[in-house]
Automatic annotation (TrEMBL):
Keywords per UniProt: Cytoplasm, Lipid A biosynthesis, Lipid biosynthesis, Lipid metabolism, Lyase
Protein name, as recorded: 3-hydroxyacyl-[acyl-carrier-protein] dehydratase FabZ
GO molecular function: (3R)-hydroxyacyl-[acyl-carrier-protein] dehydratase activity
GO CC annotation terms, alphabetical: cytoplasm; membrane
Enzyme category, top tier: lyase
Reactions catalysed: a (3R)-hydroxyacyl-[ACP] = a (2E)-enoyl-[ACP] + H2O
Gene coding for it: fabZ
Length: 142
C-alpha cells in the first residue's frame, strides 16, 4: 500500500496553502481508491468568518478535501502527472454532522469510472468513524 506525505501530495496535485486540504494519504491504489486525512485546526483561515464563536468547517471545503483525495488517486500515475482535475458535477451530497476544530477528517475516495477525460468518484468523509459527508463527484481531467 502506498502512503504519501503532504510534500509528496504536492508533487501530484497543484493545490497549495490555504487550499491544500489533505495532510496525508494513508492508503493509495492508483486509479482505484485513496484514503486521506485533514487535521482540522482552529488556525484554519476559514474559521475567522465561519462562524465567529462557533467555528464550523464549510461543507464546500469538505467536498473539496474529498475531491483532492480522489485527485491524488487519479493523477498519481506518471501518464497523468501535471494534469488537473476540475469539478464537472456534484450529486447525491449529504452532510451529516458538523466538522469542527480538533477533528481529524478521514476521507475515502473510490473511482467509479473514467472514460476519456471524464471521471466519477464516490467519496465519504468521517470523523472518529462517524460519517460526516458523502457524495458523488464528477470531474474533467485536462
Amino acid at each position: 500500500m502506498i502512503m504519501l506525505s503532504a510534500t509528496e501530495i504536492q508533487k501530484i496535485i497543484p493545490h497549495r496553502y490555504p487550499m491544500l486540504l489533505v495532510d496525508r494519504i494513508l492508503e493509495l491504489e492508483p486509479m482505484k481508491r485513496a484514503v486521506g486525512i485533514k487535521n482540522v485546526t482552529i488556525t484554519e483561515p476559514f474559521f475567522q468568518g465561519h462562524f465567529p464563536g462557533q467555528p464550523v468547517m464549510p461543507g464546500v471545503l469538505i467536498l473539496e478535501a474529498m475531491a483532492q483525495v480522489g485527485a491524488v488517486a487519479t493523477l498519481y500515475p506518471a501518464e497523468n502527472r501535471g494534469k488537473v482535475a476540475l469539478f464537472a458535477s456534484i450529486d447525491r451530497v449529504k452532510f451529516r454532522k458538523p466538522v469542527v476544530p480538533g477533528d481529524q477528517l478521514r476521507m475515502v475516495a473510490e473511482l467509479i469510472k473514467i472514460r476519456g477525460g471524464m471521471g466519477k468518484l464516490w467519496c465519504e468523509a468521517f470523523v472518529d468513524d462517524q460519517l460526516v459527508a458523502e457524495g458523488e463527484l464528477m470531474f474533467a481531467m485536462g
